[in-house]
From TrEMBL:
This is DUF2339 domain-containing protein. The keyword Transcription regulation does not apply. The chain crosses the membrane at residues 7-24, 30-47, 67-84, 90-107, 174-193, 199-222, 229-250, 256-276, 283-303, 309-328, 335-352, 358-375, 395-415, 421-440, 452-469, 475-492, 499-519, 525-544, 556-578, 584-604, 616-633, 645-662, 674-690, 696-712, 724-742, 754-773, 785-803, 823-844, 851-869, 881-900. It comes from Acinetobacter silvestris. Keywords: Membrane, Transmembrane, Transmembrane helix. InterPro entries: DUF2339_TM.
């Protein structure tokens, strides 16, 4: 497992490097930067994973270690990002060089530590070896256990993915790769000889076919000596024959379709004989896959839809013959997937109306084959093990239910506007499965199959009434029928009925989009019934405890899609119904109150996760709607409400949305990230109504009050966990950045530095952000990231407080590139940052807080970089001289009065 994860990581990193280099030479610099950032983030994540595993090993072998701090890696990354944003290539080079240096130093310390662990493990092994030699039965027990596990693995039924992994990854993967490369080589050779060789095309293809026959015969002769190698040769030879036949037919070397068909049948017959003779599913699999992709290797012309579907029919007939004699279900599964994905999609894109009659026959023939395959496969398995027979993998069930349903869907689309044909086909399928049910129900060994046939008969019968309805009323018929069947499934706990109802509800939603485009008027009635039915399904399913027990994860995901769709439809319907100045707020309040009523009713009936998750997803359109409304009401950096009702209506909606997120409180323990995200956004919407002239201040007033209240509730873990989230941290960081950059009212009511509304809110927000970072330590966030965020947020906000003061009193640039060339601003920055470093390092030295001292030292590093990068370019000015002298003097004082605290022990400071 760990080895696989490590290989995946290495492959991911190599892919990033390749894409970045390729994008650089193609002059896609943005893609290169994105790949570089992803590479750094991936490596840092890899570093954290390694360090965590080493800490676990430390506890086992009791080896003390101290890795280098990861703070220099973060700082180097930030320097590179700054250089990219400022288009300073030398700064990018400096950041990348520093990052590589610190990363290699980290790897060197890791290597030294691993050597210590290896030595300690050897010592432990020597101490245990004496005891293990006294109990030789341990070796026998271990061998018995391994053999039993291997027996269970080999005897257990494998799903499609497991079988595919077993075939691809076990045995000789080099041999399989060689076969794949040689097949590609044959395709390229055929293309080359077709276009370039001077011999006649018939002679060229004859040579290739002869070589393929020789390779096949050679593989068959070697079957007793090396089975896997022999099968690979036979598969390679048969693949060459398939490909040569196609090139010959489509280049008119074999002009007769009948002769080409006979040759293809001969090759298929040889494949069947070899597979059955050697009991080799691998050979059949290789040959069938190559046969399936062969039509797409022809360079001359595209194959027609009828030809491709007919060709796949021949392949499926061959597979049906094989699996009629042997229970090789993986062939059934691959044939079904290839037919649907390749032939079906090709027919959907390239099919023409004049081919409809032929395609109808072909689709019916494919459907009949897969119906037979599902029945025959079940009979073969039942004969092998009558007691343990049951279909577990999803693809086994898909073969029983999916084949007829997908075949019917293709026919339904081919005769989309012809109700009689659609209803007739549905009736024909229902009669077919009624006959199959009567034929199979007597055999008790395959009772599951008989029940499935009965369910399919009922499914096709259920489809008839909605088909006969006209236009949008057919959608109404689909959704009402789905609602009724879903209620039936809940009362009788019928899984088949439940999935049938889900399919009907989904079909109703898809067809409603079609009629929305086709009909000249907006179909209000259809969408009212559709949205109310979707709400009804979710509410009824969560209203009773017996119903709630039937809800699985897949059904809850389906409910989430229903709630999302129902909310969007209700939003559009109410906007279409209401008119006037209060149209938007009235719609928002009605939907929000509706959600509150539903939420309270279902909480009364003790619904939890099966309602909470669909509720969260259903609220997403409301937040998008409010955001659009806020952008529409924004003018010159302020929010201008059209009426008092609109202003306080948004506030009321925000309060109700907050209630929806916090009730029930158990949802906070279920998924605190989503609750925190939705709750904070709701509070922000509510808070925006307080001071609309200063939205950046207004948006955080209620969140800050709520944060202070949660801080006082120290005995309540729930309220602390509300702020102990990455999403909440991201929202606060977003405000910290955007408020300073984009606020147009930062100087409103400005008296003195700090003694003004914007600075006060900024400082309080920073305090709250620091508390949230301290909470992140309890959930295991890397201390290096917390340190970097603390330093950057402190410098960012304090620098902007200073910038506003300088701009107000001295008219210096504000939020302009020119501020980096202003000597007064740079001098002020230097003195401010050095002062912050002095305060933090002095306090840390006094309290013996080594991590805090390192934070102050990080600020000094940033000051030094600023002096070198900016101040040194204007060394002749007096303010630049004062910057250097002032910074150097404070550094000397720090070095004297605030030495670095001593380490208490290696384990305590390893993450500092």
């Amino acid at each position: 497992m760990l080895k696989g994860q490590s290989e995946i990581r290495m492959i991911w990193l190599m892919v990033l490097i390749i894409i970045a280099v390729g994008a650089w030479f193609l002059e896609l610099k943005v893609l290169t930067y994105i790949c570089g950032l992803a590479f750094v983030v991936s490596v840092m994540h890899y570093v954290d994973a390694i360090q965590t595993s080493m800490q676990d090993m430390t506890q086992q072998v009791q080896v003390k270690f101290q890795l280098s701090s990861k703070v220099p890696l973060y700082i180097s990354s930030i320097i590179a990002v700054v250089g990219l944003s400022m288009h300073w290539r030398w700064l990018v080079g400096l950041g990348l060089t520093s990052w590589v240096f610190f990363f290699l130093r980290w790897l060197r310390r890791l290597e030294r530590y691993l050597l210590n662990i290896k030595f300690q493990l050897q010592q432990n092994q020597y101490s245990v070896s004496a005891q293990s030699s006294l109990t030789p039965q341990n070796t026998m027990m271990r061998s018995t256990l391994d053999s039993s596990v291997a027996a269970q693995t080999s005897s257990g039924s494998l799903g499609f993915i497991d079988q595919l992994k077993q075939w691809l990854l076990q045995g000789n993967p080099v041999l399989k790769a060689a076969v794949l490369v040689l097949v590609i080589g044959i395709i390229l050779l055929l293309r080359f000889v077709t276009e370039h060789w001077q011999f006649s095309l018939a002679l060229k293809l004859t040579i290739v076919a002869t070589v393929s026959v020789v390779v096949t015969i050679l593989g068959y002769l070697l079957r007793q000596k090396n089975r896997s190698f022999a099968l690979a040769l036979q598969g390679l030879g048969l693949a060459g024959l398939f490909l040569t036949l196609f090139f010959a037919f489509y280049n008119d070397v074999i002009s007769s379709f009948l002769i080409a068909s006979l040759c293809f049948i001969v090759i298929i017959g040889i494949t069947l004989w070899l597979s059955l003779k050697q009991q080799s599913i691998e050979l059949a699999l290789m040959a069938m896959v190559i046969a399936a992709i062969a039509p797409f290797t022809v360079p001359i012309r595209a194959i027609t839809t009828s030809e491709l579907v007919g060709y796949y029919l021949v392949i499926n007939i061959a597979i049906a013959i094989l699996t009629t004699l042997r229970p090789w279900k993986i062939l059934n599964q691959i044939a079904f997937l290839m037919t649907v994905a390749v032939a079906g999609s090709y027919a959907f894109i390239h099919g023409y109306r004049d081919e409809r009659a032929v395609l109808t026959v072909l689709v019916l023939a494919h459907t009949a084959i897969f119906i037979w395959l599902s029945l025959r496969f079940s009979q073969l398995l039942a004969k092998q093990d009558l007691e343990q027979f049951k279909l577990k993998p999803a693809l086994d069930i898909a073969l029983i239910f999916g084949a007829p349903i997908i075949g019917y869907i293709f026919l339904y689309l081919m005769y989309f506007n012809e109700k009689v044909w659609q209803a007739g086909l549905s009736c024909a399928f229902a009669l077919l499965y009624a006959v199959l049910y009567q034929f199979v129900k007597r055999n008790q060994s395959i009772q599951f199959i008989s029940n499935s046939y009965l369910s399919l008969m009922l499914i096709f019968m259920v489809l008839i009434p909605p088909i006969l309805l006209h236009e949008q009323w057919s959608v109404v018929g689909w959704v009402i029928e789905g609602l009724i069947i879903f209620i039936y499934a809940l009362y009788y706990d019928s899984a088949i009925s439940r999935y049938l109802a889900m399919a009907l509800l989904l079909v109703a939603g898809l067809f409603s989009l079609y009629y929305l485009v086709e009909l000249p008027e907006f179909p209000r009635t259809m969408y009212w019934i559709l949205s109310l039915s979707y709400f009804a399904v979710v509410i009824l399913s969560n209203s009773y405890k017996d119903f709630q027990k039937q809800l699985t994860t897949s059904i809850v995901i389906f409910f989430s899609a229903l709630m999302l769709s129902a909310t969007c439809m209700l939003l559009i319907l109410l906007l279409d119904h209401f008119h006037g100045p209060n149209q938007y707020i009235g719609t928002l309040l009605i939907i929000t109150i509706t959600y509150v009523i539903m939420n309270e009713w279902l909480l009364f009936n003790k619904a939890l996760w099966s309602w909470v998750i669909p509720k969260w997803v259903g609220l997403i359109p409301l937040y998008i709607f409010v955001l659009i409304l806020l952008f529409d009401r924004s003018q010159n950096g302020a929010i201008v409400w059209q009426s008092t009702f609109e202003r306080w209506g948004v506030a009321g909606s925000g309060l109700l949305l907050m209630v929806l997120w916090l009730r029930p409180m158990a949802a906070l323990r279920l998924e605190k990230e989503w609750v925190s995200l939705g709750g904070l956004i709701s509070l922000g919407f509510m808070s925006l109504s307080l001071i609309p002239s200063m939205p950046y201040i207004s948006v955080v007033v209620l969140p800050l009050l709520f944060c202070g209240w949660c801080f006082l509730q120290k005995n309540s873990q729930d309220w602390s966990s509300f702020w102990q989230t990455r999403t909440g941290l991201a929202l606060v960081m977003l405000w910290i950045i955007c408020s300073q950059l984009f606020s147009q009212h930062a100087f409103q009511a400005y008296l003195f530095p700090i003694l003004n509304p914007f600075d006060v809110v900024t400082i309080i927000t920073f305090v709250g952000f620091g508390w949230m970072l301290s909470l992140q330590l309890k959930v295991g966030m890397d201390k290096g990231i917390i340190a970097v965020l603390s330093v950057l947020s402190l410098l960012w906000l304090s620098s902007y407080v200073l910038l506003r003061a300088l701009h107000y009193y001295f008219a210096t640039p504000y939020n302009q590139v020119a501020l980096w060339q202003d000597s007064l601003v740079q001098l002020s920055f230097t003195l401010l940052w050095v002062s912050l470093a002095f305060i933090s390092m002095s306090w840390a030295s006094h309290k013996q807080l080594r991590p805090m001292w390192i934070l102050g030292g990080s600020i000094l590093v940033i000051v030094t970089l600023k002096l070198v990068l900016f101040d040194l370019s204007h060394i002749g000015t007096l303010t630049r001289v004062i910057s250097f002298l002032g910074a150097g003097l404070v550094m000397l004082i720090i070095a004297y009065v605030a030495p670095i605290p001593e380490q208490k022990n290696g384990l305590e400071s390893r993450d500092s």
